[in-house]
Amino acid sequence: MEQGGDRSGPGQARPLAQVGRPLPRREDARILSGASRFLDDIDPEGTLHVAFVRSPHAHAKVLGIRALGDELVLTAGDIAGHARALPIQLPEGAWAADEPHPLLAVDEVRYVGQPVAAVLAESRALAEDAAELVEVEYEPLEPVVDPYASTQELLRWERAAGDVEGAFEAADAVVRGHYSMPRVVAAPMETRGAIAFNDRDEGLLTLWCSAQDTHRQLRNLAHVLERAPESIRVVVPDVGGAFGSKGVLAAEAGVVAAAALLQARPVKWAEDRLENFMASYQGRGMHADVELALSREGRMLAIRARIVADVGGYLMPTTAMPPHTAAMLMCGVYRIAAAGIAVSGRRTNKVPTGPYRGAGRPEAAYFVERIVDDAARELGIDPVELRRRNLVRDFPHETPLGWIYDSGDYGGCLDRALELVRPERSEDDERIVATGVGMYVERSGGQFESAEVERAADGTVTIRSSSSPHGQGHATTFAQIAAERLGVDLSAVTMEFGDSALVPAGTGTFASRSVAMAGSAIVRAIEDLEASADGRHGSARFESPLVFASGAYAAVVEIERATGRLRVRRIAAVDDPGTIINPLLAEGQVLGGTAQGLGECQFEEAVYDEEGQFTGASFLDYSLMTAAEMPPVATAFVESPSPLNPLGAKGIGEGGAIGTPAAVGNAIAAALGGASLDPPWSEDKLWRALQAPAPAAVPRFDVVTAARPAGERALIVLGALAAGALAVVLVRRRR
Amino acid sequence: MKPVPFEYSAPESVDGVLALLGDDAKVLAGGQSLVPLLNFRLARPERIVDINRIEELAYIRGDDDGSLRIGAGARQAALERSQLVAGRWPLLSQAVRHVGHPQIRSRGTVCGSVAHADPTAELPVALTALDARFHVRRGGGARTLDAAELFAGPLTTTLAADELLAEIEVPALPAGARCGFSEHARTHGDFAVAGAAVVRAPSHAAIALLGAGWTPLRAPAAERALAEGAPAEEVAALAAEPVEDAHRAALTRALVRQAVEEAGA
User: Which of A124, A274, A723 is opposite residue B156, by nearest beta carbon?
Assistant: First the structure.
């Protein structure tokens, strides 16, 4: 690991030097021994279980709903007086159509899997049986699958700064490219779920929810139910992963809460894998036309981009965030004086999109880094040299789009990545080997978090944090921060989080922000405790502007000529997350993010057919990376502390997912002599590119409609069923 | 993902199983394909007949006639661990390692994989290359099929609803035989896209293809070429020729070549 940064914050004592120790996670013994408690482990007495009737159509009018069974069925009409659609959250300067996600479909369905009715029964199995007895009459409408064919804009954002037109006119070279990152699923190991119980005597509605944090769920629910936040308690138990997909209230969770208001019993929805594939919001789905203006010497003068986001049927609360983040990061790690970026979020008949690990940052890094390599080819300049000539080197640095990069050592990251990756380029009859580089800068931090600290007479300390974990390791890293500041042993620190009734207010666990924001709040709360008269209690609310982590990734890839098979030989991952609290957990974040990035490189894509059916919507067809496919990843850290918080922390949760596709994409473009292919780089796509007579620009939307054997497994099963191979009856037409 | 209601029986004898089989019944062996189909509510049998309690079906043994016998209850993991199989039918040991993950193989059965008849499953392809024979029983009768007679299409066999695939017989390999198995899957343990099983002996050559059609397919022209001593590349080209999709043909060609080379030809 690099020892570049000064780990200690200004003027802080470090009696036990806990910060910087690679401690194993304290929470693992409990989780691995099965003592954890996930949403589906919670089973209050008298619970009613929910199964949803979901739309089989990508676009249809709902003409009528008839329940033929005995179980209780709720439709939009039944909850109309109790709940409204989800809210829409907008980034600065954005316009959005008033098309929020309804809890249950009102008179139209806009994607396959959209909840139409909720069935409540004594068990989930009985609820599923009863859901089959709900007849919904649909009038199918024409679906829109291609965002470029969509005529309805749900989201718009535009910003231009500096003399963009002038720079393009004066440029010696203008490089243009079209780049896409397809939609993917988050696929956390634990699916979504919620349990609601309304205590009428107390006037308190409690929602247990598999979520990233309590506060956004609570705010969303207060909006949906038009209820005072004080009358709602949100409890987040152990959570088996989210990757962005549990950041806001699920429509289904809103229905569960509304149902609990109508019933005197707890109501539970534990999502199954099929539902998670169909109805959990997807990530990415962004396409960009990018233009880069350069001088002959390779100085980047201006960048222009039109980003089209395939946002799906409705706007979820955070659907607008990833396209906005991508747009704001379109200057990448480079000094570019002028930028003009426009975002258009187009309505399609697919499940909405939302944040997925990186949430706009991988898209920006991919768009920017791909065009930098294309520009290097065009100008005949080495791509690494072209980067060096343009890297931001002085901080703080304000981009023309208005974000201020607080700290960094972009050149240092790049040097270290090249050193670790050992670049290769070779070609023979059997394979092509090439190297690519992808750099990134990522927004983190911002908004606020809180903490409360209590020291008992025996010296043990309890810390209540507004930030709750879903795999990050808060119980370890936060305790390290506290133990060091308090000068106590780690075992003396107990962490509490995940219950809105117990913890102070905060923002949430997303955008790699937990250590920078919630960790800093703990530091401030300890300072408050130490300044207090009795030395027993402290509390603090910490807020700061955005902080910007960064990194450089490099990949060596090998493409087999005979089959098109891609083998990523090795990855070098160099991240600058600011001060590192726990290098072991930091490296774990890098490896996990890299694995997800590699999945996107190799095979992950939510493929839709022309009817708007997601054709690979199960693990029969949709593959995730396994340990067996992981190439060697050489990790290193550069620590440039942020001046904006007492820890000097920025963030590490997403770097692997951001840097990897950009680096692999550039390696593949280099291997194919500049041919432009977008992920996933499946063997058939690469093989077809190798059969092409010369590297030519690939038509714009080939990647979306390419003849990938998508849904093949599902087709085999359904084909056999149609042939009557199994003694079955298909009640619902799925395709 | 909960199955529709069904009757469940777990007889203690083969005769008990045969008495319960019929139009609306499915046999539950390892359940690695059937249970997901039940959970998707795609398979909706009225009765599940569980054969897991019949210990006499869980065997893998060598017969006096030199053949290998695999009973309906034998797990894929048992095949994988069998020293007898590793020594005398190494193609099965090679192929079974590609079936799903260890957890799946610990429950999944060899006969279950055959009866499920997935055209990209490894064991049916290996058994096709090995000229296996399939012994089928029903109440008051029995018959024996070869691979071409058994596999009818994707997830489709010629087994009648009242029949149980009771045993697989694999004849002894010719003297001096060597084997090769190769496949391509997107991830380790994923369903394979294409693959090949090869048996090569001084006067014998067998090549079976995975994912090249709707059932495991033999490649007769390529087998003749291999028997006549043609180079691996030529054998592979012949084997892949009938595969329609151009990329799948390219993949098949590369995998056949790899399996032929592994078989030492």
Answer: A723
CB within 8 A of A534, min separation 6: which ones?
Answer: none
Contacts of residue B36, Cβ cutoff 8 Å, sequence gap at least 6: none
Domain A40-144+194-273 has CATH 3.90.1170.50: yes
Q: Minimal Cα distance from B119: which residue of A?
A: A716
**Domain shared by B38 and B70, yes or no:** no
Give the mutation candidate from A726, A732, A733, A734 for the B interface (greatest B CB count, under 10 A): A726
| B153 and B61, same domain (yes or no) | yes
Give Cα separations from B173 to A137, A232, A306, B66, B167 (angstroms): 61, 71, 64, 9, 18
Interchain contact B40–A (C-beta under 8 A): yes
Residue holding tokens 């007495």? A45
Q: Does A561 touch chain B (CB under 8 A)?
A: no
Q: pLDDT band at B248, cuts 50/70/90?
A: very high
Query: How many Cβ atoms sit within 10 Å of the Cβ of residue A32?
Result: 10
CB-based contact (8 Å) between B24 and chain A?
yes
Domain A28-36+449-541 annotated CATH 3.30.365.10: yes
Interface test with B, best of A430, A684, A688 (most B CBs within 10 A): A684
- Residue of chain A minimizing CA distance to B2: A125
In this structure, the number of other CB atoms found within 10 A of the CB of residue A542 comes to: 24
pLDDT in tens, A693-706: 654 443 332 222 22
Cis peptide before A115 (omega within 30 of 0): no
CB of A607 within 8 A of CB of A616?
Answer: yes
* B62 and B154 co-located in one domain: yes
B108 vs A: CB within 8 A? no
Query: What domain range includes position B105?
Result: 55-170
CB contact under 8 A, B2 and A728: no
Residue B14 sits in a domain whose CATH number is: 3.30.43.10
Dihedral sign computed on CA atoms, order A703, A709, A714, A720: positive
Q: Is residue B245 part of a domain?
A: yes
Q: CA of A691: which chain B residue's CA is closest?
A: B247
Tally the domains of chain B.
3
Supply the pTM of this predicted model.
Answer: 0.94
CA A210 – CA A223 distance, rounded (Å): 19
pLDDT tens sequence across A351-391: 999 999 999 999 999 999 999 999 999 999 999 999 999 99
Rounded-to-integer distance, Cα B222 and Cα B241, Å: 9
